[in-house]
C-alpha cells in the first residue's frame, strides 16, 4: 500500500518506526561490543594468527556509537514529559520504574553470581555488601538503568533553566570526567554520558526533523564529519586532548546513526527487525551479560577444544562475534513473555499498582468512564504521541 493509501495512524506509526529501530539496533550494538570485549578477545588471546583486525576496528567505532545513540533516543522519548511536567505523576513514575528495574536486576545478578562463582567473570556482584554499595554506585552494565532514573529526575528539576546552560554544563562535565582515568569502573559513565541524554531531550525536535528529511547525501556528509572528528582525535595525544573531542565525536556518530537507521528502515525487513528489537530492549540489555558469563564458563571449560578448533578457521574467527551476538539476542527476546506467563512479569516492569500510585492514575469504575478516558482529548493524545511519551507500563516495561 502506498503512502497515499495509508491512514493517518499508519503514517504516524511508520514515521516513528525509526525510534524503535534506532533503539533496537543500538542495544544490538551494545551486545556485539560486549561479545567482542568479553568473549572474542579473551578466546583468541593465546591463539597465534587468528585475530581478525576488523573486529578491533568495529569495537572502536561502537565505543563512539552505542551509548550516545541509545541515550539520545532515550532522551527523545522522554523529552516532552521532562520539559513540560513537574517531578510528579508520570515523570516520577518513569524515574522510579527505571530505578526499580535497576534494583531488581542488581539482585538477580547477585543471585546469579552466588551460583556462578568463577572469579574471572567481569562485573561480578558478590554478596550483600556489594549489593548495598551498588544501590548508589553502579559497577555493572546495569548502570544505564540507574542513569536513566537520575537523568530524568535532574533534568525535570532544572526544566526551567535555559537549554544552552544545561547542555554547556553537561558538556564540560562530560569532558572533565572523560579526561580522568577510572580503570575497571563503570559509575563514571553516569556523569560522562549524561550530556547525550540531554541532547535527546533538548534536541528532540531537531532529531525528528533530521529523521523526516533524511537523505543519502546527508548520510555521506554525516559520515565525513564523524570520520573527520575521529581522525582529529587520532592526531591528538594524551587523555586531555582526547577528552576535548569526546562529545563532538559522540554527537557526530549520533547524527550518523540516526540518518543510517532512518534510511535503512525504508526497507521492510530492516524495519521489522529493528522495531522488534526496539520493543524488547530491556530483556536483551539486562540478560546478555549473564548469557556471556555462562558462555565464558563453557568455553573456558568443556567447550575449550571445540572453540579453539572453530577459531583456528579464518571463517570461524571472522563470524564468531556476529553469530554469538545473534544467539544471545535470540535467547533474550522470548524471556519477558515467558516471565509473564509464570508470574514473573515484575522482573521487567514496575508492578501496576505501584505505577498507578506514582503516576496518579486511577482505575476506571465503569464502562462509560473507560470509554471516556480512552477518547483522545487533543492532538498530543494521538497514538504516535503516546508512543513517544507514554510511561514505562504503556510500552511493556521497555527502556525509554
Q: What's the helix and strand layout?
A:
Elements: H1 8-44, H2 53-84, H3 90-115, H4 127-134, H5 143-157, H6 163-178, H7 189-202, H8 204-212, H9 216-235, H10 239-264, H11 268-278, H12 281-300, H13 304-312, H14 314-332, H15 335-341, H16 352-359, H17 367-374, H18 383-389
Shape: globular
Report the C-alpha radius of gyration, rounded.
22 Å
Number of domains: 1
- Extract low-pLDDT stretches: 1-12, 365-397
- H and E order: HHHHHHHHHHHHHHHHHH
For the terminal residues, how far apart are their CA atoms? 30 Å
SSE-based structural type: mainly alpha
Mean pLDDT: 84
| Tally of helical segments | 18
- Counting DSSP E segments of at least 2 residues, the number of strands comes to 0
Strand coverage percent:
under 5%
How would a crystallographer describe the biggest sheet? none
Fraction of helical residues: over 70%
Fold and architecture overview:
With 400 residues, the chain is mainly α. It is built from 18 helices and no strands. The protein starts with 7 loop residues before the first helix and ends in an 11-residue tail after the last helix.
In short:
The protein is an all-alpha fold. Helices cover 73% and strands 0% of the residues.
Which terms summarize this structure?
400 residues; globular
Amino acid at each position: 500500500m502506498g503512502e497515499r493509501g495509508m491512514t493517518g495512524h499508519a503514517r504516524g506509526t511508520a514515521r516513528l518506526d525509526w525510534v524503535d529501530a534506532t533503539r533496537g539496533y543500538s542495544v544490538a550494538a551494545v551486545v556485539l561490543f560486549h561479545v567482542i570485549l568479553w568473549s572474542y578477545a579473551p578466546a583468541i588471546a593465546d591463539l597465534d594468527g587468528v585475530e581478525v583486525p576488523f573486529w578491533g576496528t568495529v569495537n572502536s567505532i561502537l565505543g563512539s556509537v552505542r551509548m550516545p545513540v541509545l541515550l539520545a533516543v532515550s532522551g527523545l522519548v522522554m523529552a516532552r514529559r521532562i520539559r513540560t511536567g513537574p517531578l510528579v505523576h508520570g515523570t516520577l513514575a518513569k524515574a522510579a520504574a527505571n530505578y526499580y528495574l535497576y534494583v531488581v536486576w542488581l539482585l538477580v545478578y547477585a543471585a546469579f553470581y552466588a551460583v556462578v562463582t568463577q572469579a574471572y567473570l567481569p562485573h561480578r556482584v558478590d554478596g550483600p555488601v556489594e549489593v548495598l554499595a551498588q544501590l548508589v554506585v553502579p559497577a555493572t552494565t546495569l548502570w544505564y538503568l540507574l542513569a536513566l532514573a537520575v537523568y530524568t529526575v535532574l533534568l525535570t528539576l532544572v526544566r526551567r533553566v535555559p537549554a544552552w546552560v544545561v547542555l554547556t554544563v553537561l558538556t564540560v562535565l562530560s569532558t572533565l570526567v572523560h579526561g580522568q582515568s577510572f580503570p575497571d569502573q563503570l559509575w563514571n559513565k553516569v556523569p560522562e554520558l549524561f550530556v547525550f541524554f540531554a541532547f535527546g531531550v533538548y534536541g528532540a525536535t531537531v532529531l525528528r526533523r533530521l529523521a523526516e528529511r533524511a537523505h543519502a547525501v546527508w548520510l555521506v556528509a554525516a559520515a565525513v564529519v564523524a570520520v573527520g572528528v575521529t581522525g582529529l582525535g587520532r592526531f591528538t595525544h594524551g587523555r586531555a586532548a582526547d577528552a576535548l573531542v569526546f562529545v563532538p565525536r559522540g554527537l557526530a556518530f549520533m547524527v550518523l546513526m540516526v540518518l543510517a537507521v532512518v534510511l535503512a528502515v525504508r526497507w521492510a525487513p530492516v524495519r521489522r527487525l529493528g522495531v522488534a528489537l526496539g520493543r524488547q530492549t530491556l530483556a536483551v540489555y539486562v540478560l546478555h551479560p549473564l548469557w556471556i558469563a555462562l558462555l565464558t564458563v563453557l568455553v573456558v571449560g568443556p567447550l575449550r577444544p571445540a572453540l579453539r578448533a572453530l577459531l583456528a578457521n579464518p571463517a570461524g574467527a571472522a563470524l564468531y562475534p556476529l553469530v554469538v551476538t545473534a544467539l544471545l539476542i535470540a535467547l533474550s527476546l522470548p524471556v519477558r513473555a515467558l516471565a509473564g506467563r509464570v508470574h514473573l512479569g515484575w522482573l521487567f516492569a514496575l508492578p501496576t499498582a505501584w505505577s498507578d500510585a506514582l503516576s496518579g492514575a486511577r482505575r476506571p469504575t465503569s464502562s462509560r468512564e473507560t470509554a471516556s478516558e480512552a477518547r483522545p482529548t487533543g492532538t498530543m493524545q494521538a497514538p504516535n504521541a503516546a508512543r513517544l511519551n507514554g510511561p514505562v507500563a504503556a510500552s511493556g516495561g521497555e527502556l525509554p
